[in-house]
Amino acid sequence: MSVKDFPDGSKEELDGHFLIPHNRPMCLLSFIFVFSLQAHASVHNDNSEELRQLVQKMVDSHANDKRPSHFAPVDHGPSFDIPVTYNAKVKWWINYFQSTNRKWFRLWMERASAYLPNMQRVLKSKNMPQDLAFVAMIESGFSPHAVSSADAVGYWQFIGPTASRYGLQMSWWIDERRDFNKSTGAAAHYLGDLYRQFKTWYLTAAAYNMGEGKLQRLIDRYKTRNYWELAKQPDFPQETRDYIPKLLAAMFISKAPKLYGFDQLNFHSMSEYEYFTVPGGTDLVHLAHYIGAASESVLGMNPELIKGLVPVSVKNHRIRIPKGLSARAYDYFKE
Predict the structure, then answer these.
(1) Where would you tag: which of 60, 99, 147, 154 has the fewest CB atoms within 10 A of its CB?
(2) pLDDT tens-digit profile of 75-133?
(3) Tens-place pLDDT, residues 154-193
């Protein structure tokens, strides 16, 4: 096993896989790959030529596609700011997203244009890798209404205890795991804490999926911090064994969708809104009708309000309404 050090002090393991250093534009990666192959030729010989060809295709895909792209500037190849490994497990998930799960993955990429930039801004403001925003893609497909079999909820799929620990309110009428801004801030805080504990981004993401307590016990048991070695162990959860390959596959495709056969994506945009403080007893559907907005639009801007209302027991609550309609909302509450 080899360990690669990165400029920010992070480390990632090289163990039978080809790893792309993070925060490197793809157009510069050919040189990096040649250097890495020379240093780790015995490890990476099987996949080296295939990976070189993939990298060139990703660069060419961006160079030849002059349409505006949400995922990378048109005059630059895609870049990564977490280490990227390319192996058989990653390729399996790429194929899965291209075939069996193609319909849903297309929808996830279309939704990404509405959510990914804001998520990345939050992560960047905390000096964290912006590619961690793809965790939300594989967790929920960027849907506030996603609920897992373990009762994880929202964009970032928080379970109740973790959500409470990071300040997200949950009750019969509100679930802030569905609030885009609050849940993203909480997720960035949680991911930062996990990185401080586990020191690599692969283990950070793995702990996000399986829980830090379980992962720490496995690390202590097997005396390794190599994600790929831990994933080989019989008591390592299958979902987490798939988690990093799934995350990396989502990143590869999303950064060069046309290369992987996803063309003519219908990118979504986030509706423009403004905040408005309403008193307890406010029904969002009634408010929407009065201000001349579609009820679906107002409800969609406030997915954390589970019942579509603010209960009378609450003094007031800040909601989102379509931009430019505050004056009408003031009139509604005067009547």
Answers:
(1) 99
(2) 455 789 999 999 999 999 999 999 999 999 999 999 999 999 999 999 999 999 999 99
(3) 999 999 999 999 999 999 999 999 999 999 999 999 999 9
Catalytic residue among 13, 139, 212, 304: 139
Q: What is the pTM of this model?
A: 0.82
Q: How many CA atoms lie within 13 A of 263 on its CB side?
A: 6
Residue 265 resides in a domain: no
Annotated catalytic residue 139: yes
Is the domain of 63 the same as that of 163?
Answer: yes
Give the number of domains in the chain. 2
Residue range of the domain that includes 278: 273-334
